[in-house]
C-alpha cells in the first residue's frame, strides 16, 4: 500500500486547476478518477491523513456496513471488483478502508490529493468565472469547477455538555476514533447514544470493559444483522454478476438488490401473509424488513403492524423484562429513523456489568470530573464514548464559507433549510456541484450507488460544458423552487417527517426541521436526472 501522506511537510500551493474536489471518501475518489479521465487538472483536498472518508474516521469497535459488502462496493470497474474479495456479509471498517486504499493504489489517486488539508472557503469570482478555494494550510487555488464530496455523515457532533472540559477520564466520539484503537480493559465506560454507532459498538465495548453504562435518550428499532462469513461460491458468483447487478440496483428504490419490495398493500394481504413476510424478512436480516408490504412506510396503520412485530422480537431478545421495555421504541414509526442492524445488542443488556439509563425524562445535566450526571445522580466512569451522531447532510458543507454570485453566502441561503435543484446544484452558485446533496436519494439508499449516479452525471456534464465551450452551469431559481416543493411533497406522503431524526435535522439544536433527502427512490430519481441531462440540462442555465 502506498504512503498516506502522513507526516508530509506542510506545503502551500496556489495556481489554477480545472476542478477542485473537497473530500476523498468514496465520492471524492471516484470523482477524481472520472475527471482525470476527461483530461482535467484536478486537486482534491481531504482533511484526513488518508482516503476513505467515513471509513477513515469511524474506527470505533464494531463498525461495519449495513448494506451487504457485495453491494456496498464500487460498481464502475470490472477489474477493480475482480481484484477484491470480501470476507463477510457485512464488512467491518478495517476491511472497507483496506478496500478503499486498494482502489486508491489501483487508480493511483493519491498523487492528486492533498491530505490533512481542510477547505475553509470557496468563493465564486464572477468576472473570471472561477472558484477561489482556500484551505487551512494557506493554499489559495482557483478552479472552474468546485465539487463538494464532503459527505453526509462527516461532521461528527459532540453535544454541548457542560463540564466536559473538566472530565478527568478520556472521551471519544465514534466518528473520530483514535487510529491506534482504545483498550477498555478494566475500565468503567459510559456510552451516550443508541443510534447505529452506539448499537454496533456497545456489545463490543462491553466484551472488553469492566462496566458499561448506556445513556439512552431514544430507543431505536434494531434487528439482527445476520452477519456471517461469505461463502467462496457467493464471492465467485458476485464477480460474474456485479456489473449487471449494479444496473439492476439503479432500477430499485434503494439501490439494493438483495431483497425486493413487496408491492401489495397491507390491507390486501391476510394477517398470516403479513406475519410470514415480516418473519421471513426479519430472519433475512437487513433492510428487507421494511419492504414487507407496499404501504409500510406510508400509513400509520400499516407501519404499526411491522412496529409491533419488531417490538415483540426485540422484547423476546432480552431476559430482563424491565430493561427490555426500556429498550423498546414507542415514539416513532419503524423505519423513519435509520433502522439499526446489530450483533447481540439487546442481549448485551442481560449481562451483569451492563446498565441502561433512560435519559428521556431526565437528560444529562453535565459531565463532572468523575463521570456523567443526570437525574441528580453521578455515574462515575473512566471513559465516555459519544455515539451522538453527526450534523448530517449539511454540516460539512456549511462549515465551509461558500459564497456564490454577488458574494451571497450558502449558509444564509440555506438558513431555513437546504435548497437545491436535484441535490446537485443550487441557484446562485454556478459550477458548484454537491455529491449526494440534500434533495437527492443519498442517505436513503445504498450510498455507493447514489454516489456513482451523481459522479457519472457530474462528469458527463463537465464533459458537455468543456466540449461545448460553455463557461458555466447554474440551477435556475424556478427549477430549484419546484424541486424543493416536490421533495417536500413526496416526504409529506410518507411517515418520515414524523420522527425526530437526523434526516430532519432534529438532532442539532437550532437546525431547521426540514426532511432533507429525496424519498422518491434511486430509480425514479435516476430517470429524472437522465432526462434533465438529455434535455441539455433543463432547469439549469448554461452560460456562454
Ligand atoms: P465521506 O465518506 O463522509 O467522505 C467525505 C470526506 O470529506 C471526509 O473524509 C472528510 O474528512 C472530507 N471533508 C469534509 N469537509 C471537508 C473540508 N472542508 N475540507 C477537506 N475535507 C473535507 N452508507 C451505506 O450506503 N451503507 C452503509 O453500510 C453505510 N454505513 C455507514 C457506517 C457509518 C459508521 C457511517 C458514519 C456512515 C455509513 N454510511 C453507509 C454512509 C456513508 O457515509 C456513505 O456510504 C459513504 O461512505 C459516503 O462517502 P462520501 O465520500 O460521500 O463521504
Ligand atoms: O448517530 P445517530 P449514529 N443527549 O444520530 C443520541 C450511519 N451509520 O452515529 O435519538 C443524549 O443515529 C441520539 O438520541 P436521539 C447511519 O446512517 C451507519 O449512531 O436524538 N443523547 C441517538 O441515540 C446512521 O443513521 C452504521 O434522541 C444524545 C444517538 O445519540 C448515521 O450514520 C453505523 C444527545 C445518535 O444517533 C448516524 O448514526 C453507524 C444528547 N444531547 C452509523 N445527542 C451502520 O450500521 C444525541 N444523542 C452501517
How would you summarize the topology of this molecule?
Layout: E1 14-22, H1 26-37, E2 42-45, H2 54-57, H3 78-82, H4 93-106, E3 113-114, E4 119-125, E5 130-135, E6 140-148, E7 170-173, E8 188-192, H5 196-206, E9 211-216, E10 222-224, H6 232-250, H7 271-284, H8 300-316, H9 321-326, E11 340-342, H10 345-348, E12 354-358, E13 364-367, E14 371-374, E15 377-380, E16 383-386, H11 395-398, E17 401-403, H12 410-413, E18 432-434, H13 447-467, E19 472-475, H14 477-492, H15 522-534, E20 540-543
Parallel strand pairs: 1-2, 1-6, 2-3, 4-17, 6-18, 7-16, 8-9, 8-16, 9-12, 10-11
Antiparallel strand pairs: 4-5, 5-6, 13-14, 14-15, 19-20
The structure holds flavin-adenine dinucleotide and 3-acetylpyridine adenine dinucleotide.
Amino acid at each position: 500500500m502506498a504512503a498516506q501522506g502522513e507526516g508530509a511537510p506542510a506545503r502551500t500551493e496556489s495556481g489554477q486547476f480545472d476542478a477542485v474536489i473537497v473530500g476523498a471518501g468514496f465520492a471524492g475518489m471516484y470523482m477524481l478518477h472520472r475527471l482525470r479521465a476527461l483530461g482535467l487538472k484536478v486537486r482534491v483536498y481531504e482533511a484526513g491523513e488518508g482516503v476513505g472518508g467515513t471509513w477513515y474516521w469511524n474506527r470505533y469497535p464494531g463498525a461495519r456496513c449495513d448494506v451487504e459488502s457485495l453491494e456496498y462496493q464500487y460498481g464502475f470497474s470490472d477489474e477493480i471488483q475482480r481484484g477484491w474479495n470480501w470476507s463477510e456479509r457485512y464488512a467491518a471498517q478495517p476491511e472497507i478502508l483496506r478496500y478503499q486504499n486498494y482502489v486508491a493504489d489501483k487508480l493511483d489517486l493519491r498523487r492528486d490529493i492533498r491530505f490533512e488539508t481542510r477547505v475553509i472557503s470557496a468563493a465564486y469570482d464572477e468576472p473570471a468565472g472561477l472558484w477561489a478555494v482556500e484551505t487551512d494550510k494557506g493554499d489559495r487555488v482557483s478552479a472552474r469547477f468546485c465539487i463538494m464530496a464532503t459527505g453526509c455523515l462527516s461532521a461528527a457532533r459532540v453535544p454541548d455538555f457542560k463540564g466536559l472540559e473538566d472530565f478527568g477520564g478520556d472521551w471519544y466520539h465514534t466518528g473520530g476514533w483514535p487510529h491506534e484503537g482504545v483498550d477498555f480493559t478494566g475500565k468503567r465506560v459510559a456510552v451516550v447514544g443508541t443510534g447505529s454507532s452506539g448499537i454496533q459498538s456497545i456489545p463490543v465495548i462491553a466484551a472488553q470493559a469492566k462496566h458499561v453504562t448506556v445513556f439512552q435518550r431514544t430507543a431505536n428499532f434494531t434487528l439482527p444483522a445476520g452477519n456471517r462469513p461469505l461463502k467462496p461460491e457467493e464471492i465467485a458468483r458476485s464477480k460474474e454478476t456485479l456489473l449487471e447487478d449494479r444496473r439492476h440496483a439503479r432500477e430499485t428504490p434503494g439501490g439494493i438488490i438483495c431483497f425486493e419490495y413487496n408491492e401489495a398493500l397491507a390491507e390486501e394481504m391476510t394477517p398470516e401473509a403479513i406475519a410470514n413476510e415480516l418473519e421471513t424478512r426479519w430472519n433475512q436480516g437487513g433492510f428487507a424488513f421494511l419492504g414487507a408490504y407496499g404501504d409500510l412506510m406510508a400509513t400509520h396503520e400499516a407501519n404499526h403492524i411491522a412496529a409491533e412485530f419488531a417490538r415483540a422480537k426485540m422484547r423476546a431478545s432480552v431476559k430482563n423484562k424491565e430493561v427490555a421495555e426500556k429498550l423498546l421504541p414507542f415514539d416513532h414509526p419503524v423505519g423513519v429513523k435509520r433502522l439499526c442492524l446489530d450483533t447481540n445488542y439487546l442481549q448485551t443488556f442481560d449481562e451483569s456489568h451492563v446498565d441502561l439509563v433512560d435519559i428521556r425524562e431526565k437528560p444529562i445535566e453535565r459531565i463532572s470530573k468523575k463521570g456523567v450526571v443526570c437525574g441528580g445522580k453521578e455515574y462515575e466512569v473512566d471513559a465516555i464514548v459519544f455515539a451522538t451522531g453527526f450534523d448530517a447532510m449539511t454540516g460539512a458543507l456549511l462549515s465551509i464559507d461558500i459564497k456564490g454570485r454577488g458574494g451571497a453566502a450558502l449558509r444564509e441561503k440555506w438558513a431555513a433549510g437546504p435548497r437545491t435543484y436535484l441535490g446537485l446544484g443550487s441557484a446562485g452558485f454556478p459550477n458548484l456541484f454537491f455529491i449526494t446533496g440534500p434533495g437527492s436519494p443519498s442517505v436513503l439508499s445504498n450510498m455507493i450507488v447514489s454516489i456513482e449516479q451523481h459522479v457519472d452525471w457530474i462528469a458527463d456534464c463537465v464533459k458537455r460544458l468543456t466540449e461545448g465551450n460553455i463557461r458555466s452551469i447554474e440551477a435556475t431559481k424556478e427549477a430549484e423552487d419546484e424541486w424543493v416543493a416536490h421533495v417536500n411533497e413526496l416526504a409529506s406522503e410518507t411517515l418520515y417527517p414524523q420522527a425526530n431524526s437526523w434526516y430532519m435535522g432534529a438532532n442539532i439544536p437550532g437546525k431547521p426541521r426540514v426532511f432533507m433527502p429525496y424519498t422518491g427512490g434511486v430509480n425514479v430519481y435516476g430517470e429524472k436526472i437522465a432526462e434533465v441531462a438529455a434535455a441539455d440540462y433543463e432547469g439549469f442555465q448554461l452560460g456562454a
